[in-house]
Amino acid sequence: MSELDFRDARVLIIDDQEMNIAMLSGMLKKHGFRQRFSANDPFVGIEMFQRIAPHLVLLDIEMPGLDGYGVLARIRAISPDVMIPVIVLTAHTEQAVRLKAIDAGASDFLTKPFDGMEVIGRARNMSILGMMSRRIADENRRLDEAVRARTAKLEQMVEILRTAESALSAKVSAADESTALMRNLASRGARSFAALADTIMETSLANAGETPEWLAVSGIAERIKLTAEEIELVADAARRDLTVSRQRVDLKAAVNAAVAAVAGTAEARKVSLSVDLEAAPAAVITDKSWFGVAVQRVLAEAIDCTPASGAVRVAWEESGTGSGWLSVTDGGPPVVLAQPRELAMPFDVRRVQPAARDARTGLGLAIAAALSQMMGSDLEIAGTGEGAVYRIRLASE
């Protein structure tokens, strides 16, 4: 903010006596005030106040037609959000007169006959206050306009996402109940919504640094995109009768591929991913394709539940001869659930947190659980002191 100079202030003198106007204007000019305006009629003075937007008003109390109290009331009503200093000019020294002027909105007083140094001293101080007041009001208006514009844009994006979410819900029903032709249409529609959500997510992430609210839009868009991809998966799988081919799968390679698929999302959310499979077997027996999809869904849920600068960890836990658990631990709020497995139920269940906030899980865990069962495995979900751990049981060689 640049330094204010009283010489740039606009000073308005309202007095019915031309001699007083000439005297005051001459004093101000002599001491550097460049912009001086005057009116010898109170109504003309009010009109000039609206037109020139002064930083300081020198106002006579006793004027015909409308006294200084009336002028004060009107100029305060003109700009209620800007407190422009008004110095009252009066020959009265009675306390009652001054109190009445203060009640009407006066900032200071000058007693007639005027003392030149007093006039200039008060004018300098009050003009700086007036310039500061107008500058603050202008900045507040600019910020209000910017907030309104950004809010309108956010509301537009949220409405687009809500429309997409409603349409996707309809596609889910179609995928469950319709013929193979309708499933094909659902798959194609889901791809379109995924592309739309991806575009919105890129836009919102690009604006997140300037406006933090865009992060919320990004999160909604990402969930829409994942749901669309999952609908496409269900529709395509239904047409293929969910064929499962149990085979020897390189565990580390499969997990690393799944981690790579969600690495972009994790980076955008500033969530770190770590993998420790040193204790894991070289291979497990499962369906390579569906296992990769299931791990991706679990990782996506873990990333979604982990705050910025948090971590998602992938590890191996032995459970006995010939089997073990691939575990994914998130860094979200602690899970408090009597039956954590209910997290894998689509849409209807919630992840309850100690602060009484909750977040829907969507279809990701539901599909991961269904695929695990289809592959002869299981998905377990348990709460920890730092979030949740998701375990997929696997048979080793």
Task: Report on this structure.
This protein is α/β, with parallel strands linked by helices and 397 residues long. It folds into 3 domains: 138 residues, Response regulator (Rossmann fold), CATH 3.40.50.2300; 62 residues; 150 residues, 2-Layer Sandwich (Heat Shock Protein 90), CATH 3.30.565. It contains 10 helices and 14 strands. α2 packs parallel to α3, α6 runs antiparallel to α7 and α9 runs antiparallel to α10. The radius of gyration is 36 Å and the shape is rod-shaped. About 6% of the residues have low confidence.
Features:
397 residues; alpha/beta; Rossmann fold; Heat Shock Protein 90; 3 domains; 7-stranded mixed beta sheet; 5-stranded parallel beta sheet; 10 helices
For the record, the CATH architecture of the largest domain stands as 2-Layer Sandwich
Characterize the largest beta sheet: strand count, sense, and whether it forms a barrel. 7 strands, mixed
Measured as a percent range, the helix fraction is 40-55%
Kindly report how far apart the N and C termini lie. Answer: 71 Å
Low-confidence stretches: 338-362
Total number of beta strands? 14
CATH class label of the largest domain: Alpha Beta
Radius of gyration: 36 Å
Structural class computed from helices and strand pairing = alpha/beta
The fourth-level CATH homologous superfamily of the largest domain is Histidine kinase-like ATPase, C-terminal domain
What's the total helix number?
Answer: 10
- Indicate how many domains the architecture comprises: 3
Overall pLDDT confidence: 78
Shape: rod-shaped
Strand percentage lies at 15-25%
Helix and strand element order? EHEHEHEHEHHHEHEEHEEEEHEE
